[in-house]
Amino acid sequence: MREITLEERIKAELASYNGLMGVYVNDFKGNKVEINTEEKFETASCIKTFILGTLFDEVEKGNKSLTDILTYTKENEIDGSGVLRSLDFGVQLTAKNMATLMIIVSDNAATNIMIDYLGLETINNFIKSHGFMDTVLHNKINFVMYDQLGTTTPKDYGRIFELICKEELISTNASRQMLEIFKKQHYNSTLTKSFPQYFLDSEDTGEEELIYVASKSGSMNACRNDGGIISTPYDKYVIVLFNKNFTDPIYYPDHPATVFSSKVSRLIFDQYLTLQGKLK
């Protein structure tokens, strides 16, 4: 009897999906899943991963400091995700804390502050110099002036998490610090929506935490994206799930892109655990 591969099972799951999904997975054992991985997608807030990388790169070079004080001003007031827009102008945070807000609650105002602090050109230079040739930050976040924020591919996005996972993005210390920030990210339901919650909730169960996720998601009218590192007792794997060309632009928990992505994520998760740390 012919084996049904993981790629075939994913494609069968997506047969009734009204959209285009890019899937990239790497188990670091020589096995990958690649579906539409060189297709270009709007990044939405996933571009914030590259901005965080730029910050740590500039700190490593001695150009910036994680303890530099940054101020929230009216110039960077912006709607959308985050908490700064609910606070008074003049709030000050260190560069590291501002960047942490940018990642863990996807704070748009903090993102614009970081773009001003680092510089758009510096961010795009970091992106290209580290080999992410299909990724670009187009502009600051401004929903009135711009239709786009960034562009990337599932392969590029997977690679930045691969480098973090291997502690090879900038330096060992920088990779470890970024990993800890990504582990605190609040919006990873696309990757974990169909996971057994018992494994993820050591605080309530009292058991050892068996699974952690270090990720960054992003959503706009044109896309629903998520990607990062899944750590299991067997080892870690990188997963990226990007979506576009769907017909429903409204945001809600059971959006088809989220539902189908979570199904694909669970297929990969089960395969990885069944094979004790491998995809094949």
TrEMBL record:
Q: Biological process GO annotation list?
A: beta-lactam antibiotic catabolic process; response to antibiotic
SUPFAM superfamilies referenced in this protein's UniProt entry, alphabetically: beta-lactamase/transpeptidase-like
Q: Which InterPro entries match?
A: Beta-lactam/transpept-like, Beta-lactam_cat, Beta-lactam_class-A
Keyword entries, A-Z:
Hydrolase
Q: Name one Pfam family in it.
A: Beta-lactamase2
Domain of life according to the entry: Bacteria
* GO function terms (MF aspect): beta-lactamase activity
The Beta-lactamase class A catalytic domain covers which part of the protein? 22-241
Q: Which PANTHER family match?
A: BETA-LACTAMASE (PTHR35333), BETA-LACTAMASE-TYPE TRANSPEPTIDASE FOLD CONTAINING PROTEIN (PTHR35333:SF3)
Q: What is this protein called?
A: Serine hydrolase
Kindly list the organism's lineage. Bacteria, Bacillati, Bacillota, Clostridia, Lachnospirales
